[in-house]
Amino acid sequence: MSIKLDGVSYAYNVGTPAENVALDGVSLVVERGEWLSIVGHTGSGKSTLAQHLNLLLSPQSGTVSVDGELVQIGTKAARGLRRKVGLVFQYPESQFFAETVRDEIEFAPSNWGVKGDDLKSCVDEAVSASGLDPALLAANPFALSGGQRRRAAIASVLAMRPEYLVLDEPTAGLDAAGIRDLTGMLSDLRERGMAVVQVTHDLGVALERSDRVLALERGRAVAEGTPEEIASYLAENPVKGLLLPPCASFAHRLRSRGINVPLTSGAAAIAEAVEKARAVMR
Amino acid sequence: MKFGNTSIGQFIPGESVIHLLDPRCKMIGTFVLLTALFMAGAPWDFVPWVFLLAAMPRLSRISMRAILRSGRPVLFLVMFTMLLNVFWTPGNEIARLGPLRITEEGIVSAFCMGVRLYFLVVFAAILMMTTSPMAFSDGLERILSPLARLGLPVSEMAMMMTIALRFIPTLFEETDRILKAQMSRGADFESGSMIKRARSFIPVLVPLFVLVFARAENLAVAMESRCYVPGGHRSRMRPLVWEARDTKAMSCMVAFAVFSFLWGMCLPKIASICLDML
User: Fold this and answer.
1) Which of B184, B190, B204, B213 to mutate to test the interface with A (most CBs of A within 10 A)?
2) Is A51 on the interface with B (CB under 8 A)?
3) What is the pLDDT of residues A32-72, one digit of tens each?
4) Which of B4, B180, B186 sits opposite A83 (nearest CB)?
5) Environment class of residue B65 by beta-carbon count within 10 Å: exposed (0-12), middle (13-18) or buried (19+)?
6) Which chain A residues are within 8 Å of B205, Cβ to Cβ?
7) What is the pLDDT of residues B12-65, one digit of tens each?
């Protein structure tokens, strides 16, 4: 059970002077139950890639298949499969239109004909999974705080019970506590077997929790692997706009001085390694 | 559903002879030309105009394809006008379709109407394609500045126009994004009855309005923080300067307009004199 992209290419404004190749032969597999981060700087094609996963864009060359089914955009099948792959856009709270949070969350499932008790349980599940305060269901979505809005927006996608969840820059505009809460929530979802695909330019967030990371540069996949592999790849081959988090680049410097410490190990582990090295030196 | 590729008279940056002209020269010149175009009443009157159009890719460095394509949005209107003219002009009947009659005069006037409308749009589009929105509103402001004495807020109107033009592409982008976001939540804009389809756009229109107002507010704050005061006298970084080439271009355009007018007046006479001699 997976989403498979094979040699996907996509360009905007084809045939005009503003032609812009966003994706250039990207292949990718998203397995059910894993957390994949797609990292890249602005304009690297990561948002375009996210829209392919959700079948909003169809590749100009290459193929997209969901759970073994080859998908063509504009067909009934594409719309059906769109339900399996929830896409949370960047600043998803800017899609709000309903008068209450409940109406907003009911929008997606009711578009697929879910009614009555089923609809209610969809909403309840989504609210508890997203950590939204149930008391806010009756509130006006525009009256919520920033963090609550983001949760409500994610809940409105979760309510259609997707099997894959793709998020485009989910942490944009959130403060540190908000980012921590959000990544915690995504971990919980992954624990329950949902595939989480997080598109981000923030390497720190990507390296911390993902199972696998894919780095994009100018529409090409330049590296793919575990967070540790990607961190050491990027330490050796810097990619424009992708800065290693301070801990990782510090760990990388320590390595060059013979102190071997994983790049993604965090401040406490690095401090410990340094302490050990000092003890040995004495 | 895609809004990314709209190119109806969109500005195409360049350094051609036409691009470099003063916007006032281009606007007044286009106005003169279009007035002359309206005088053309017979099919042969359009001969000079075809030559003028043929010279445009060279003068503007915009491909003929792009120039001709700019008339596409009004093609339907052109067709409609032509049909009306073919059937509703009295004169020598040459064919009959039930109550509808086709006349010789009808065909001639349909041809003239159609070509005139199409040329009108294409020449206006060339003006838009070679003039940046900034330059355009600057030029308009200067041309209309005498009206400011009558109390008309000309510079504010020009500012509003600049802002509106500037935000059209942004709005298209936002609309596209919201459409996609709602589609990924299962919104269906393409099936169902008219009423159902109209209702399905509420989830697009509401967020769009919210965004527009938020943007307007931000823009207002940004302008005020840079000391914009409506009615205040603003100096310019690049004042419009009327140069020798503008005078030359203007003379050429006026000369062409006069020529095409005389051509339309004299051609039938010359033709009939020639015929008489034969």
Assistant:
1) B184
2) yes
3) 889 999 999 888 889 999 999 988 888 888 888 888 888 77
4) B186
5) exposed
6) 97
7) 888 899 999 999 999 999 999 999 998 888 888 899 999 999 999 999 998 898
